[in-house]
Structure formats: structure tokens, C-alpha cells
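Morning!

This is the sequence you dropped in the shared folder:
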Amino acid sequence: MKSIEKLNFNNSFACLPEIFFSEHQPEPLQDDFLIHFNPVVAELLGLDASEVERKDFLDIFTTKKPFAGFKPLAACYAGHQFGQFVPRLGDGRAILLGQIRDEELRPWDLQLKGSGPTLYSRGSDGRAVLRSSIREYLCSAAMHGLNIPTTHALFLSGSREEVYREQIEPGAMVLRVAPSHVRFGSFEYYFYSQRFDELKLLFDYVIEHYYPHLPQAPNPAESFLNEVIDSTAKLIARWQAVGFAHGVMNTDNMSIHGITLDYGPFGFIEQYDPNFICNHSDYHGRYAFDKQPEIGLFNLSCLAQALLPVLHEDADEAVSLAKKALASYQDLFVKYYYDLMAEKLGLKSCQLDDQKLIKSLLSSMETDHVDYTLMFRYLSIAELDTVSQKCRDLFIDRPAFDAWYELYRERLAQDYDLQDKASLARRSNQMKQVNPKYILRNYMAEIAIRKAQDEDDYSEIENLMTILSTPFDEHEAFEHYAGHPPEWAQKIEVSCSS
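The structure's back. C-alpha cells below.
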């Protein structure tokens, strides 16, 4: 592990022509202070966790203190927002400080969010509020704990500086960490502005730095598109399996690395509802939970279109290659999703008839408004010699559940000896590693936010980081977070400003 100064800084993005970004110095918040530091992310970077104890730690990463390793810039991109193309977006409240390579030479962006206005702020203040920053900080840790590819956050800082949203709120910053922040919308910007030379430059940059195995492929652009389609299908399958709704799946919020990017009005399903809309601003339900797989295909189609100039010099052949690649998405998603759901049921593999078993369970859960996370966790610890009472009590139509449960036991009997306690213990342990006991329910984040805003008490953030970082563990001291949400939680609303 290294000190800040000895990290391997390699600001490759800053070497691109200036059309790709604008150089911009962050504007540190007044009277800022460190709220929380994530040692797990420090380890990813190769940063010695003890560096956080330095008096100048926060000053370096918020640029109060000049640091030679940083070359701050705001990147330019476009995107389809709620289905409508916006020709110019960009980092409006985030600044790329620099890039490092870890001990294995993997690249990591260090991006400061909430750092003031940039060229792309479109009249906004470029700030982030404590409320949204806490949510993003917690959720990036939660997703990592759930083994879902994600951006990370090294630290969360607060301040006494006031920021206006719907009301006056304290400002905050998050230092985000990701392989890169290149988005689908990054390619769209140069395609729609017909800057095909710059599009080729961006493509070559991405291949050189993030897909170094592809230059030897017969058609690197085709291979790149296929890999992004695969990783995106796998990512969204993971979202669906755990019950996560992103809330704002614009193409500028889709990563070329197949990771979850930009946490805003996200939400985890509680009572199972495939039509769940987590974003209060999504009036038409474009980004409802059950729409995420098809929106993934739409977004990939936008990326494929933007890549046409590098896919092939012949336009018709380029279109043909794009269509061929996109045609693989549905089958990939279905396979990844049902394999994950089979794991959640403790099955050793997903057979064709297992899809019916899974769909039948989800249909009953929808009808009876069953808590998604609780159901699968309870199923993980079921004894199987009789009907699981904990699972059964979640349902209104219990005879229907009993009938499903009997079919489930019959299917399990193909993979396990139901009379062998050791075999069943292995099944239970395996299921508990894929069915979390804890998810980031909105009310949990809300408790942490209220304590922070109203009492200057940040202890709940640490508590939640403990259970969210290892959500499959028991954490008996936090058992109160493993049950149904309280009644008041039903009134929580989140939107694009959250």
C-alpha cells in the first residue's frame, strides 16, 4: 500500500485533444470536513488506509492544496435522456481529478462530485447536497457488497456551505472511483455532431486503455460492441435478480465497462412489483423495474449506432454488423437472469422447466405483495422437511404457496438428497451467499440522512456501511434492519434531485 504521492498517476484522458473536455479547477466547499472513508476502496487503489489520518488528506483530494498528480477536467458527452436526444451534456457537477494504475496496472478514475460549476453545468451550481451524496456513497458500497459491478466511492465529505435544491441543504462531495467514466453518450456526442475523426480517436483511446486485448481481433469495433452488450446484459440481469431499480437509465448514465453508474433516484424493490417506479420524476414509467432489460437494449442500440463509422467503412456492412451484435442481447440477458434466479432458489443449474417455477413464484409474490428480499432469504434457511412457515406467512394465498413449495421440493430433490442434513446445509449456505439479508432500503438511507442533517450525527452511515459491505452475513446487532420497513417508509419519494 502506498502514500498518495507514490500512487501511479497516469492521466491519459487529459492527453486527448481539448474537444473531449475542458480543464477546470474544482471549487472546494467552505468549512468542509471528512464524514466517512472507505478502506475497501483504498485497497482497490493501492492506497494505504492510514493516509486518511493526514491533516492534508481532504485538502489534497478537494484541491485546496495543489497536487502535481492531478489534471482536473470535465468531460464532454451527449445522451438520450428519457428517450430524447440531448446533443451536449458533460460533467456538470463532477470533475475528473486524475487517473491512477494499481499494482496490477488496472486504470482507475478519481472523480470529485459536487465540485462546482463547469462548462457543462447548463446554469446549475455544480454542487451536490448531503442527502444525495449519502445515498450515492451508501449505494455504491451496497452494490459492491452484492457483487454487482459498480462505481466506488473513496470518501464522503460534508460542509457548512448551503446549497439550494427544493430547499436549503448542506453541500457535500463524493470522490468516485471507476475504471473510467466513458459512457455510451461519449460516443453519441461525436457521432451526432459528425465529428467522425474525433469518434475514431475516442474509440482508439478506449481500446488502448481499457480493452487492450482487442487490437488483435479481426474487427476490434465489432468485438468491443459485443463485449459491451454482454457485460450490459449481465449487469442488468444482476439488477433484476437482486431487485434493484436504477431510476434514470439515460445513455449518458450507461458505462462502457458494464458497471452501475450514477446513483440518483435508485431503489430496491420491497413488496414485489414488476412495475415498480423508483423515480418520482419518471411520470410515464419509462424506467420502471420491469422495463430495465428493454431499456438496456435501447441504450445499446444507441451505442451501436454511434459506433457505425468505426464498425466498417461500408455503411451497409456497418449496420449489418450492429444488428447482428444487438440480436444476441435478449438471449444473453435471459440466460444470465435465469441462471441467477436458479442460484437464488438453490438449484445447481437452470433447466428449461425451472423458468416456469421461477415465474410462478414471482407471480404469486406480485399478487400477494410479498417482500422480495425477505422471501428469498427465508427460503435460504428453510428446513424443507415441512412447508417453510416464515415463507408461508409472507403470502395471503397460502394454499397457492403450498402448491408451489411442493413443486420446489420436488425440483430440489433432483439436485440434493432431502434426507441428508449435510447436503441440505450446503444448499442453505450456498443460497445465503446469493440471497442478501440486507439491502439498502430507502428508509435506512433516510435515517442516516436525517441524523446527519438534523443532529450532525454520522454514526448511522458507519452502521449501514458495516452491513451493506457484507450483506449476506448475519450481523445480529443490526437485526432490526433485516425485517419489513416501517409504515412511515411508504411516504419516502426520490427523484432526479435525490
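Headline: The two ends are 35 Å apart (CA to CA).

More detail when I'm at my desk.
O.
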